[in-house]
Amino acid sequence: MKTTLLAAALGLSASAAFGAxxxxxxxxxxxxxxxxxxxxxxxxxxxxxxxxxxxIAYDAADPAGSSVTVSFPVRTMLTGWQARFDxxxxxxFFDAAEDEMVSFTSTGIEVTGxxxxxxxxxxxxxxxxxxxxxxxxxxxxxxxxxEGKPWLGFTATTKVLRSDYGLGMFAPFVADxxxxxxxxxxxxxxx
Length: 191
Fold this sequence. Notes:
Layout: H1 2-10, H2 14-18, E1 22-26, E2 32-39, E3 43-50, E4 53-58, E5 67-73, H3 82-88, E6 101-111, E7 116-125, E8 128-143, E9 150-161, E10 177-188
Antiparallel strand pairs: 1-4, 1-10, 2-3, 2-10, 4-5, 5-6, 6-7, 7-8, 8-9, 9-10
């Protein structure tokens, strides 16, 4: 029933509703990952990843059969302060090479509502792979008014522990737990 309601709520064409998963490519200009953490109890610090690549294989008839993959260089991190970025890229944290990647590959999707799901997947960060669960919401699906083709929008949230990925320097004074907020758009791949 939830799957039927989700497909109907999306307003997708009958051919999409009865076909296999369709491939959508993330729009790098309108997809962001925002992370935040408590700094010594005094403030909340923020960082951002943007301009990354990824694909969603979306099955409107069976959303649980969909999948997502995302990857981006760790050095695309934006912190708003060069000294903080430099410290994050130092041996204290990432010791990141130019080509070091962060990636997420879904391993399962549990539909939880008409437009919501829990997406389980493997997050690879700093050379360590651990499972995470994203609480995801479909924000919009339909034809993009400027691109003239099917488009999807999603938000998702999760929390990760820095120490799980070998990035626990200064914990617990600087919070080990990092909140992650994701907002993505994806356009259907032609052909």
